[in-house]
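Researcher: Let's do a round of design. I'm pasting the structure tokens now; please hold your answer until I've finished.
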């Protein structure tokens, strides 16, 4: 029999959005339960140095920031279910949430803060060699490429950050980008361009990852001319953005054409009582600090919603 718990607020996801929502709900005595997702903690768990989260003048490691947020939420009574949400049933009230066969949760309100996951190129050879030289996480896997040559695909801030990080291990990192200009911010571009271990190939795409048991090279295709070249490398890293983690909500919550949750009136979704926070609906800003801010907003909106329905522990605190 699955364990069944009741709570005024269930929070799905445990990145900065979910944990900030939990902190605010817990301090409002709404006894939140967080279904943390597997792995827990979101994208900060695969980030090294976070230099732009206010309050940490010397920077902080992503996993440590998550750990601090989680302990802060727990301090005020947040409970955690370390499992993946498998079903959200909104046909009756309270909502019913299931996390695998072992956990059932009934909640008067739900905050969805499931974030987004790494996007892949979609090549069969990429999928076959994933974990054998193909990776979307430099922080996790960079260590295995000491003295090796690598290709990294992408032209945004993540790509620059990952390329720079990989130079701690690799002898050379070739950034392959499909356009002529990088999308990354100027400061990140400059850092990457001034690193002697980083080279650039523009207007090219990876047509195939080569190698049987592990990566031995990549076949690149020039997008304007179609000309193909082979680069001998021992690893391929992909840093081309993210896909929102909304599959489990399809058919229930309104999604946009890219799969992000659509919200109205700040954090409300199309289903009354279900709110959204963080990268799962924000594809514009996507920062740890903005996700945390949206988590705070969702918690205040939930507090007000429950107070209006007469199910909150207290009247809502002022939104000052
Ligand atoms: P992003 O800014 O959306 O960049 C994704 C990159 O991947 C783009 O250059 C895009 O090319 C390319 N791309 C997308 N699909 C592709 C495909 N199928 N094949 C080849 N290339 C593909 O994503 P991000 O770099 O993950 O950054 C996300 C957000 O986080 C941004 O707001 C960014 O500023 C922020 N961020 C900030 C920092 C920092 O400040 N230190 C670090 C990391 C991320 P096009 O340019 O042609 O679209």
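Researcher: That's everything. Go ahead.
Model: Designed sequence:
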């Amino acid at each position: 029999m699955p364990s069944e718990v009741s709570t005024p607020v269930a929070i799905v996801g445990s990145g900065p959005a979910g944990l900030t929502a939990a902190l605010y709900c817990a301090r409002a005595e709404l006894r939140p339960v967080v279904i943390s997702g597997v792995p827990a903690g979101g994208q900060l768990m695969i980030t090294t140095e976070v230099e732009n989260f206010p309050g940490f003048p010397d920077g902080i490691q992503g996993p440590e920031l998550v750990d601090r947020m989680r302990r802060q939420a727990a301090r005020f009574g947040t409970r955690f279910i370390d499992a993946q949400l498998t079903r959200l049933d909104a046909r009756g009230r309270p909502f019913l949430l299931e996390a695998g066969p072992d956990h059932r949760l009934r909640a008067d309100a739900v905050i969805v803060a499931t974030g987004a996951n790494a996007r892949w190129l979609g090549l069969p050879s990429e999928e076959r060699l994933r974990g054998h030289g193909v990776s979307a996480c430099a922080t996790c896997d960079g260590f295995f490429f000491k003295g090796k040559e690598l290709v990294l695909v992408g032209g945004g801030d993540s790509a620059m950050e990952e390329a720079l990080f990989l130079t701690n291990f690799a002898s050379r990192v070739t950034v392959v980008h499909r356009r002529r200009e990088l999308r990354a911010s100027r400061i990140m571009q400059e850092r990457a361009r001034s690193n002697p271990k980083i080279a650039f190939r523009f207007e090219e795409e990876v047509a195939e990852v080569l190698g049987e048991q592990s990566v031995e090279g990549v076949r690149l295709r020039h997008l304007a001319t179609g000309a193909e070249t082979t680069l001998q490398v021992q690893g391929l890293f992909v840093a081309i953005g993210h896909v929102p983690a909304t599959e489990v909500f399809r058919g229930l919550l309104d999604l946009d054409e890219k799969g992000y949750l659509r919200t109205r009136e700040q954090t409300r979704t199309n289903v009354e009582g279900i709110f959204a926070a963080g990268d799962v609906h924000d594809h514009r800003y996507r920062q740890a600090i903005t996700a945390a801010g949206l988590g705070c907003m969702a918690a205040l909106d939930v507090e007000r919603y429950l107070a209006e329905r007469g199910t909150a522990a207290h009247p809502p605190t002022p939104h000052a």
